[in-house]
Write a structure and sequence with these properties.
The protein is built from 8 helices and no strands. By secondary structure, it is mainly α.
Length: about 140
Amino acid sequence: RYPQWRDPTLMPVYDELVVTGAWWDYVDEIASRCIGPLLRAYTADIVPLMRNWSTDPDRWRRRVSIICQLGSKDAVDLELLRDTIEANISAQDFFLRKAIGWALRQHSRVDPAWVRAFVDSHPELSPLSKREALKHL
């Protein structure tokens, strides 16, 4: 809704919502419906921020950085996807592990070979992330 008013100046608002909302159901909606479209429309502005969020101490920012491209289909920035996953690949947090698997599974609908190669080249992926990533392959 109201895409003409959505631009990178909203990121501080979304950031506040992510940090204060701090639960998966709330954060996932912000990632996919708010930040994802901004990422696709303003790539140069949002990609650096997602890279920063991928290593942030706050797990919800990190989760958003991983799943913000869920709706991107063939427009996924593979470098960003790889970087955000690799930044969190050793995380013990369930919500981050699940996000990694979800992001990979979603991308497998567009590029299954890339996802298989990624999983094969990252044996350190948690069993949960791997299972989720390969669920439909």
